[in-house]
Structure formats: C-alpha cells, structure tokens
From TrEMBL:
The keyword Repeat does not apply. Gene3D superfamilies: 1.20.1530.20, NAD(P)-binding Rossmann-like Domain (3.40.50.720), Regulator of K+ conductance, C-terminal domain (3.30.70.1450). It is a multi-pass membrane protein. This is Cation:proton antiporter.
Amino acid sequence: MEIPILQDIVVILGLSILIILAFQKIKVPSILGFLLAGIIAGPHAFNLISSQHEVELLSEIGIIFLLFVIGIELSLKGLASIKNTIIFGGGLQVGGTILITTLVATFLGLPLNTSIFLGFLFSLSSTAIVLKLLQEKGEMTAPHGRIGVAILIFQDIIVVPMMLFTPLLAGKSDNILLTIGILTAKVILVGIVIILLAKYVVPKVFEWVVKTKNQELFILTVVVFCFGIAWLTSSVGLSLALGAFFAGLIISESDYSHQATANVLPFREIFISFFFISVGTLLNLNFFFSNIVYILLLVVAVILLKMVVVGLTTLILKYKPRTIFMTLFSLFQVGEFSLLLSGVGLENGLIPENIYQYFLAISIISMGLTPFLISYSSRITYAILKAPIPSAVRKRLNNIKKSADTEEFSEENLHDHLVIIGYGINGGNIGKAARNANIPYVIVDMDPDSFNKAKAKGEPVVFGDATNPTILEHIHVQEARVVVIAISDPAATHKIISSIRLFTQTAFIIVRTRYVSEIEESIRLGADEVIPEEFETSIEIFTRVLKKYLVPFDEIQDFTDSIRSSDYAMLTSLKGKPHNPNLQHLNIPNKEIATLSVRRNNKKIVGKTIKESGMGKNYRVTVLAIKRENDYLTEISPNTIIMQDDLLYLFGNPSNINHINKILSL
C-alpha cells in the first residue's frame, strides 16, 4: 500500500538533513535550514511535496508540543509572578503595533479594515522561534527572557479574539458581541475544568503511573494528557496550541514536570521541523524575486516598527537599558500565528493575494534573521550602551529601576553545588553530610518511593532520569563542582557519566559501585574516582582495627591510600605472602585504653577531684577524657571532679584498670 505522506516525509527531512549539515559548517541555525528546505520542496520551486495538507497537520502537532513544553517550564506560579507584565506589557506592545500599522497603512491608501488587519498580523511575534532560541541559550528566566515570554503569552491569547474579530472586519458577522460572550463563557468553563484537573486529577493519576515504574506508560500518559487538553480547548473554539500550553501549566505544578519535559522534547524537535518547512513552502519565489527591493524595504520598516514599539513598551515598564535592547532584538519578527491568521484574512477577502505574498516574504525573512540577532544581541547591546551619548541621557538610563527586574521564577539558582544521583542509603547520608556542612546540593532520583521519601524530608530533590540530558541541564550539572553517582545500575551509571561529560569536563565525578571489576570502565568514561562497596567496607573495618592497635593516623592513611591507588589489588589476592604476624610495633607493651562507667556513688571517687581520688598515685592509671551526659571533657587536670554516671576513658596497666573497675562497682 502506498502512503504518499511517507514519501514526502523522507524527501523533506532528507533534504533538511543535507541543508542543515551544510549550514552547520558555516554555523547557520538549523531553523533556516528547515525554512530553505520548505522553499525548495514547495509548489513554487521544485514541488516535491504531494501531501501539503498532511505536512501542515504535522506542523500543527509541532506547535502543540512546543507550547506544551513552554507551559511546563513556566508554571502557574511563574505566570502569577509576571501577570502584570503579561497584561500591561503585552497590551502595550500589541495595541501600539496595531495603532501605528493602521495609521501607516491608511496613509499609504489601504482600506481601514485591511490596515487594522495588517496591524493584527504585524503585532504577533514568533513564539516557536524565540522561545526555542531562549531555551537553547538558557535565557528564559533572564529579565529580557521573562518580559519576552510575558508579551508572547499575551500575543498567543489575543490571537483568539483577533480570529473572531476578522469576520467583523470583513463585514461577514452580524452579532460579534454575542459570539464574544459565548466564547467568554466557554473560556471560563475550560478554566474551571483545568483548575480542577490540576488540583485533584492530574497529581493522583501521575502518582499511580509513576508507582508502576513503567517508562512507556509515563510517556503515554503525558502525551495523552497534552493532546486531551488541546482537544478540549479546540472543541470550544480556542486554539489547539493554547490548550497544549494550559496542559503544560497543569503538569508544571506536579513533581514530575521535569521528566515529562525530557520525554516530550524528542517529539517536539521532530514535529516542530515540519512547521518551519510548511512555512517555507508558502513562499512564491517568482513574486519574491520580482519584488525583492520593495520586500526588503518593507522588511526593514516592519522590523524597525516592531523594535520601536517593543523598546517603548519595556521602557514604560521601567526595565533597565540592557533589558530593553535585548528584548527588542528578540521580538522584532512576524510570528507563526500571524501566518495562521493571514490565511483566515485571505479567506475572508481582507487582504488580496499580492499583499498576502508581501506578508509571507516579510514573515520568512524576519524569521530567518531572528537566530542571528538573538545570538548577537548581547554584543550589539553592549556596543550600543558603550556608544557616545550625552551624559544626561546616560545618567537617566542608568537610573531606570523597576522591581520587575528582580522578579524571579521559583526555580533554584544552582551554582558550584553538589549533585547526588540516587537517594538510597549512600545518597541520603551524603545529603545529610552536605546539609550539615552547608554545601548546596540537589538530589535526582526516578524511583517513586525514594523520591517521596526525600521530598517528605524536605530535601531538594528532582524527579527524573539522570541519564537524560534534559534532567542534567535542569539541575545545572555544567555548573556543579562535584557529582556523586550512588545508584546500583552499572549500565545507567556509565550512561550518566558519559552524559555529564558532554556538559562539563570540570565537575569531579565520584561513582559508587558494587564491584571492583567496574572501576576501569567508569574511569575510562570520565569518572574521577570510583569507590567499590565490596572493598570499602573492609577497608573501613580494618582502619578501625588498626586504630585499636594504636597505629599512628598517618600510617593508617598511607596504608589505605596504597590499597585504593592500586585498585584494591591488595584485597584481590594474598599473593602467596606467608602469615607471620608481628604485633609488637602495633601495641604499647602491657598497656591498654579502657572505658569505665561510674555507676555507683563510691565516696572514694565520686565527688572527688582526680588528684583526691588517687587515680594516678594509688591506682597507676591516667584519665584521658570524661563523657558527662552529652558532653566530652577532654581538658583533664588534677582538679577535674569525677561525678556519678560519668564515663571515664582510662590508660594504664590492665590489672590496675581491672582493680579500679572493681572499686567503681562496689
């Protein structure tokens, strides 16, 4: 059976691979590769795609996954912390762009309804491109990232009213107020359903799924939930993408959000490529090259217009100069929802075909410029801020302050920290030690019982598979000083080591393993130190044995170091060495250290000083220390008083110690 779309997938993705491979050589972002692949394979070039509609459906799935991941990473608490920026900042940017575009387009002779509609189109920026690039650069929570996300969220929400308003602009709707009222009621109803799901249903369902320890079931649950909420919002007239965003927000409130992100990312990367390809297929190359000069002028005009509006918006919000420039260099392009909205306008006769092609060309070029401007935004901003400007202006810019610059999402700012992978006995003990030593640390565990145990104790724990790079990136493993891998799975341990080394070469990796045979492979993969349980327990026991024989500490340390440095070879075989014990150098002849309890109120000793009790003169023993309740008295003098229930640490002849023990027992 022939499946046409399968042939299209092979052709366009194969073409994308070739283009992106070439682009990587010259360090051009892969997004442009997908756009170029779409242009080449589109109907206006080589017409390599026979199932255009199916490809557009795949691109829609990519948008769903993209907004789903964005929702997970933002969280409801994060949105609440920037709600004023979303409403006020987004409203200023969208409203300002629509107003200026309408005035300019009307001045150029376009009808008022067409001018307003063009304002709708140019007011929207690309959520897909901007957030993907901000994620890759790790700037989602930076000040310019937060205001950018806030404005993009407002744009994504305002798309729905714009679509409803489009028929009215075209004169094809008689009662828009009734339509908006019905839609508002639906939105409220969906909001109630989503809140109930987030509070009562989703946490319980994921708890049941996680307890099964079935990875496939977890992934299936995440995907079904994403598409289920998207379908719910679509069924009441909202967009699929907005529903996916809501689904992500719901999951963001659960303990399993990071693992959900890690599982969905591969799907997102595959399907989002179809979106950029489908955008490229829409461009009419004949029209483009025939009107290249006008198109480029319009591109410059649109970019400058959007930059001015975004810059004024962030300035009104009283962000600092660097944030203003970084934001306007992020949101200057035309967005994917504009392309969707333009199709609705074309169907309703709001824009003629030639203006539609101008719009497509402007959109694609501005999207293509986005990766470059975002990549170099820091350098350009630095150059602008260092440019010679009047001192009064610079002083005024430097004095701009706003609490929005200090708004933070409730995420841990991990740096120079300890990463503990596995919350078993060893991982738990390491966490306790780190807490007592005031060392910042984070724990990663995928076992639901261990995770819940750590969470109940208030530990900084993340649920996730540490073999997944997304989880490692979330815990900032690239900024960790030490990583301790304390799990019992050798294969997973090796994969974790390899993944960590892709992020950082400086973190010191300590691995706990069961057997000495696993040391060599772990070291080869990048571990700095491997501690096998089967021998470390033996070393610890023998260290305590040597201490009882009063071997000097430095000799014990040298002895244990020699065992470890030889990969425990001393413990793997006896090497034919005869057992001829010679303990004379390990002991002080006829002397020992003993611990005696003062249980009875012996008047010869209790309440007396050490000198008065005759410990040294009469019994020939030395009091080294005294334990009194929970305190240790180590500064012993002849005037130290012995009390009932004390614990005495004595040094002396065994017979003398036995003698005083009998006296204490009377």
